[in-house]
Design goal:
alpha/beta, Nucleotidyltransferase, domain 5, 5-stranded mixed β-sheet, 11 helices, globular, binds 5'-O-[(R)-(carboxyoxy)(hydroxy)phosphoryl]adenosine, binds zinc ion
Length: about 350
């Protein structure tokens, strides 16, 4: 059982194709974290099929929860759990509803508070789990399958949106280009692997910098890849992948670096699935070293969707008196609200 001076939160995440549950103490100590990925289920369709994802969450959530609770020394009566936090948006409606319904049931059955968590905010908390002593202000580059955002974080839970993509998310661009190149799903890891064997200078793909702020655009780059492959059908796929990855990373890092400099950030932080990208990680590290600021790169397990970050964000919300009613619904289009 948890030390009673500790607040132990159960986190639940079902917004897309990962079914996850985690127990976290005081928003910072991961006691257990279980993630069941549905990648194999969706791979043959080349992307996430929403209806299948929802059904899979229904099947997987109970065993995933049981494993996370058992690993934390708890049980199906919720012994030692003080609150339940759940992602309620953004994401796939049918998937979100599975987690939200389960969290509401547990809150009611165990008599503990429920807290709804914004999935994007949860990604911002992932780095705090590994680096609780982060200095502020921070700039977080949140790059996932559905989002590409630059966020200034002035303290935990307080942030300002600086920029975002005007078309495709970075992960979406990786997934679409990988699909076009026949590299399968999910595309990001596949491109990352094959790009290591290619020449990043083989193709001069465009770097797009829309506006003079901090926005991104990847749809033109995607079209350039298609045009280049049509023009050079015998091109080495590794060269195309390497040149594409270099172009994506160049714009992500250039804009993130500018954002960090403009707000006087002490560090640049990565979040979201694309933060697992090997070239992005090494380029951010080099850029931050050159700029004399910190670089915080969460472990790959915390970059991709997980429930520990949901529990951490939920704990912070609870500390600020934010308890959700049992009427909590799912919001597939939930946005990151500015609080700074
Ligand atoms: O954060 P996440 O797990 O789920 C969303 O909330 O979207 O991110 C998944 C995205 C996918 O688009 C996937 O292709 C991408 O992250 N991704 C990567 C890498 N690993 C995952 N993109 C580039 N390089 C990687 N190594
Ligand atoms: Zn995510």
């Amino acid at each position: 059982m948890a030390d009673r001076t500790v607040t132990r939160v159960l986190g639940i995440e079902t917004s897309c194709d990962e079914t996850a549950a985690s127990v976290v103490d005081d928003g910072s100590v991961i006691v257990s974290s279980v993630v069941s990925s549905q990648i194999d289920l969706h791979a043959k369709y080349g992307g996430v099929v929403p209806e299948l994802a929802g059904r899979a969450h229904v099947e997987l959530l109970t065993p995933v929860l049981a494993e996370a609770l058992e690993a934390a020394g708890s049980d199906c009566s919720g012994t030692g759990i003080d609150a339940v936090a759940v992602t309620y948006g953004p994401g796939l409606i049918g998937s979100l509803l599975v987690g939200v319904a389960e969290a509401k049931a547990l809150s009611l059955a165990w008599g503990i508070p429920l807290v709804g968590v914004n999935h994007l905010e949860a990604h911002l908390f992932a780095s705090l789990l590994e680096q609780p002593d982060l200095g502020y202000p921070l700039v977080v580059l949140l790059v996932s399958g559905g989002h590409t955002l630059l966020v200034e974080v002035t303290e935990p839970g307080r942030y300002r949106l600086m920029g975002g993509t005007i078309d495709d998310a970075a992960g979406e661009a990786f997934d679409k280009v990988a699909r076009y190149l026949g590299l399968g799903y999910p595309g990001g890891p596949a491109i990352d692997r094959i790009a290591d064997q290619g020449d990043p200078a083989a193709f001069a793909f465009p770097r797009s910098y829309p506006g003079d702020g901090y926005d991104f655009s990847f749809s033109g780059l995607k079209t350039s890849v298609v045009n280049a492959v049509r023009k050079h059908p015998d091109a080495d796929t590794a060269d195309v992948a390497a040149s594409f990855r270099r172009a994506v990373v160049d714009v992500l890092v250039a804009r993130a670096r500018k954002a960090a400099a403009d707000v006087g950030a002490t560090a640049l932080c990565l979040a979201g699935g694309v933060a697992a990208n090997a070239l992005l990680r090494s380029t951010v590290e080099e850029a931050c070293a050159a700029d004399g600021i910190g670089a915080f790169l969460p472990s790959r397990a915390l970059c991709t969707d997980n429930a520990a970050m949901v529990a951490a964000a939920g704990w912070w919300r609870l500390q600020h008196g934010d308890v959700s009613p049992l009427t909590l619904g799912a919001d597939p289009n939930l946005r990151l609200a500015a609080t700074a």
